[in-house]
Write a structure and sequence with these properties.
The chain is α/β, with parallel strands linked by helices and about 170 residues long. About 35% of the residues lie in helices and about 25% in strands. It folds into 2 domains: about 70 residues, Transcription elongation factor, GreA/GreB, N-terminal domain (Helix Hairpins); about 80 residues, Chitinase A, domain 3 (Roll), CATH 3.10.50.30. The model has no long low-confidence stretch (mean pLDDT about 90).
Length: about 170
């Protein structure tokens, strides 16, 4: 099996201030706390002798590679991200950072916030602006219909509420 991956369309470079802060904290933690801790553990494991059968040494080196990979990614990504701090002038339309409530034909309601791809999280109801639902919502107004393609077919939603959090 080859490691070839077809080129993917780059994700949107936008992020909220909270999302950028979270990524910077993660980078700080990995570089200043976690990496030195793991490096110390690896050097202690290496001092025990035979490294080829030393599980602590092998696991520690693997952890270091994962940390270094994540640090490289975060540094590159933070360089290209644009922090969106200003609220849109037209607050009656859906744009980046909006909290949106929608309802389907059966009366089921959903509420979520449209954020950048680096901060989406289903547990906090954040969806990526690159997702099909967010793409269908962007630019819409209150009471507009949106059509979203799902594996079960096209689903119709109605915009019931638009809110923006003050920065």
């Amino acid at each position: 099996m080859s490691r070839y991956r077809p080129r993917q369309k780059p994700s949107s470079p936008y992020i909220t201030n909270e999302g950028a802060l979270k990524l910077r904290k993660e980078l700080q933690y990995l570089w200043m706390e976690k990496r030195p801790e793991v490096t110390q553990a690896v050097s202690e494991a290496a001092a025990q002798g035979d490294r080829s059968e030393n599980a602590e040494y092998i696991y520690g080196k693997k952890q270091l590679r994962a940390i270094d990979s994540r640090v490289r990614f975060l540094r590159k990504r933070l360089d290209v991200l644009q922090v969106i701090e200003a609220l849109p002038k037209e607050r009656d339309k859906i744009f980046f950072g909006a909290w949106v409530s929608i309802e389907d034909e059966q009366g089921d309601e959903k509420r979520f916030r449209i954020v950048g791809p680096d901060e989406f999280d289903s547990s906090t109801d954040y969806i990526s602006m690159d997702s099909p639902m967010a793409k269908a919502l962007l630019g819409k107004q209150l009471d507009d219909e949106i059509f979203v393609e799902t594996p079960k077919g096209t689903k119709i939603w109605f915009v019931t509420k638009i809110q923006y959090k003050e920065i």
